[in-house]
Amino acid sequence: MGSACARRRLRGRTARAACAVGTAATLFGTAACAAGAGGGDDKVAVIGSFYPMAWVAQRVAGSAASVTTLTKPGAEPHDLELTPRQIVDVARADLIVYIKGLQPAVDQAIDQHAKDKAVDAVSLMRTLPVSGTTNAGARGSGGSGQSHGRGARDPHLWLDPGRLATVATTVANRLTASDPGHAATYQANARALVADLHTLAGAFATGLHACRQKVIVTSHAAFAYLAERYGLTQVSVAGIDPQAEPSPARLAALTGEIHRTGATTVFTETLASPKVAQTLAREAGARTAILDPVEGLPAGSKGDYLSIMRQNLQTLRSALGCS
Q1: How open is the CA angle 9-145-20, to the nearest 5 degrees?
Q2: For 301, which of 15, 78, 280, 297 could close a Cys bridge (C-beta 3.0–4.6 Å)?
Q3: CA 24, CA 17: separation in Å to the nearest integer?
């Protein structure tokens, strides 16, 4: 039943996106002679579909371009529905950075209005299948409630800093092509960001090298890339969609898995409800801790991708008994 509900949710989102696209077509026609998406100034207008993509774009662009996001702080990005005005902004932007398969409304708007201006991060690198394993011998990370079809790719690539560095380099090259007058700025900013991401990746490699436990029990299947990179095994309560509800049989199986592996912690998130994970932890005699998938910042947060990931590393080290 969980997967059927997820499919109905996805169809509902797609239908609403189609309606918004139709409304936006009229709005776009009346606004076509107005100022560009950057607000009428001469800056290149860049859109990041949700926080990690907008953060990369802002770090690369600096003050040379105008960067906005389609997903408000505190909002769960998987459920994003675009307003007609946002669809117009997509159509008028100079560059859109997104992850195909994560936000159906964004995929549809780009397919109809901005195919030639979009950077799809999934297309830039080797990706993992939605129902694939997280490392040799790991159990599938999909869980129940899967709404993605056969052959779909896991979109959560930003949780591997090395893969995110590839996105940064590509964004710099696309901005350079669109705005050669600021090429030196874009390339220098990208080099600095890539260095920061490689430093972060090194900290994870060192910090997770010697751990008593290698299993991470997560709220949803967001951490396959991190698990693959650092030799962990992800066991997820829900699938790729954090709103999917696991069946009682799935929860019973997870309780047995926690007992079998000796996992001490069930990880909750910042933007999704922790109730199911908390229930599982009680049943299994485990504790809970927040492992942030960095899908967005809570409203009022002063952190950024790097600081959140460093906190994630400390949380993992504590939960996994790393020396």
Answers
A1: 20
A2: 297
A3: 10
Containing domain of residue 278, as a range?
209-320
Say yes or no: 230 and 112 in one domain: no
Q: What is the pTM of this model?
A: 0.84
Quote the percentage of the chain above a pLDDT of 70: 81
The residues, ordered by sequence, that sit 6+ positions from 164 with a Cβ below 8 Å of its Cβ are: 52, 56, 157, 158, 197, 305
Give the pLDDT score at 151: 63
- Is pLDDT at 34 greater than 60 in this prediction? no
287-290, strands of its sheet edge to edge: 233-236, 215-218, 265-268, 287-290
* In-domain check, residue 306: yes
User: Phi first, then psi: what are they for 276, rounded to 5°?
Assistant: -65, -45
Question: What are residue 73's DSSP bridge partners?
Answer: none
Let me know if residue 187 belongs to a domain.
Answer: yes
pLDDT in the model for residue 29 = 41
pLDDT 10s digits, 9-25 = 444 444 444 444 444 44
- DSSP secondary structure of 61-90: HTTSEEEEESS-TT--GGG----HHHHHHH
138 dihedral zone (left: phi>0; alpha: psi -120 to 50; beta): beta
| 2 within domain boundaries | no
In this structure, which amino acid lies at residue 125?
M
End-of-domain residue from the set 181, 200, 219: 200
Q: Count Cα neighbours of 251 within 13 Å in the Cβ-side half-sphere.
A: 16
At residue 195's C-alpha, the angle toward residues 190 and 198, to 5°, is: 125
pLDDT of residue 271: 87
Q: Are residues 214 and 168 in the same domain?
A: no
Residue 156 lies inside a defined structural domain of this protein: yes
